[in-house]
Amino acid sequence: MNSIDLVPIGALNSKRFLIPSYQRGYRWTEQEVVDLLDDVLEFHNRGQKGIYCIQPLVVGSTTESRLTGCWDVIDGQQRLTTIYIILKYLGVQLYTISYQTREGSREFLESLGEQSTMNDSNIDFFYMSGAYKCVESWFEGGKCTISREKFLELLLEKVCFIWYQTAERDNIEIFTRLNIGKISLTNSELIKALFLNKGNFDRVANHEQLTLHQTKIAVEWEQMERELQCDEFWAFFNKGSYRPDTRIDFIFELICALDGKYFAERHSYATFRHFYRLFKWDCNIDLMQVVTVTWQRIVSLFNILQEWYNSAECYHYIGFLVESDVERNSVACVAEYIKLWQREGMDKAKFVDELCCKIATLLKSRKCDNLDRQYTIQNKREAMPLLLLHNVESVVAQIREQQISQIGQQSLFYRFPFHLYKSQTEYGGWDVEHIASSVANDLSSNADKIEYLVATLIYLECECEGRYAELTASVKGALQQLRTEPKGFRGEDFEAVRTQVAEQLGVKEISEGQDDAGNIVDKKNMVWNYALLDSATNRGYGNAPFPAKRRIIIGKEQGVTYNIEYTEQGGFKLDTKVCLTPFVPPATRNVFLKYYTVGAAAVAAWTEQDAECYKKSMYRLLHKRFGVTGTIVE
Fold it and tell me: Within 13 Å and on the Cβ side, how many CA atoms surround 399?
């Protein structure tokens, strides 16, 4: 079984290393050498205690029979060679290195410093001698602010390799995975070795018990990794931008955050180091007990995430808070909610109440908790948390109402799909879209006029059951004129039909108005005229009239684009074309279906009646639990 340890540079004394032929030669440049030297010095200057951990050194038993006792270096040879060169400059030779493809490489490394010129007899020697010159220049040029003796002591005692000794026989296969595939050892792989490596538990007397315990860990580890691959589960507690090497790394980073170690260390293997300390801190500890307690903690945290996932309110509110928190990453957010969940005296109902309070605080801090707020074109994205919460709470309310009415459990099959919402960020993200175009659309183009008239005619013929015969005839006549005599169809003729539609159908489009104090209010830049829409769709249809937007959105959700024409025979012709299907948030879909509108709803425009009903839905869902305010007209 693979073994793992943290090995100080000084502990490599008398070891022999072979760089096999499948490895590339030494290729570190001046910049990479200086970066390593600077990092070690910075570790000292920051007053860091403990150790400075560099990348894993992956080794295996050599396949060269004549080199018994020598280690094959499967990964990490560039750093291992550079450390050798630094030690050589400082007058110390701890170990030996031989490159299998470069005859005389060991002797050349041992002779570094004996000549003042670069050796260009082959490319490996050229880079090795260049690295030595770089080290020499770094020390003698004054970049090292401590004595050489102090730097050497630091290097030997405080700088450690993650020593990863593989028990697998095929070193080339391991090398291929780590290098050709560019898949480095992850924190989770290293931590797994701590839990499952029997070599780390020599002091445990009951090896049969240890074997059974480690088998249990291996099975549960696999189960957690498999369940974390479910995007719906993974996305509710993760921001779309968070992409760890493996998803189980999140649990380990979460423990670091809960222990106050997550932000203290920025090293890429800081998570592994934290767990290594738990296992290696004291030679007198009961390692079996440490393994048991630590693993129980990991399983417990995973179970909490699952419990949240299976709770409609916890799933949706934590999902909203994680997504809307722009200051902190996913791990920091979830760590806060874990601490809250584990607080003494906390139960699920109290926990949900606390989440609601946090949501209310977030809305207030983002200044979007008032439905009467007037935004501008420039700051309309500030309404995004409110719009997202309306979508989320719409689903929660539906589930809650169905449970109360005992309709059954079918509601639990539906959650707000955070995985779809977050995946949209890869395709341009989300916009706060005006439902009725922010710029007054005078419908001056014939295409927009036809769009408006066709939408009106669909409504009149399909939903009004012949109640508006005169109006229907006027709309058909205008369409016929636009088709046969477009140049002769005057603007005032169209406006006359438009006015007739507005008067007979009671269509009052959103426009500027006045508040109670007589101030001008731009009603089109209020939340009742906003919806969340993927940026590609939003920017694709521009300043289109409401009927065009409605048709595009309904079609895209179904994976098609609709093109409707009114034929000369007086019927409708519908052409469809397959297109990409973006995620349409439920409240956005409801807006364009006029789901919120009480009574008959004309599809020709987004009216003040529609907007007021939409606003009432927000107030009804968000006022009591989240403190959202606003003036509601009954």
Answer: 20
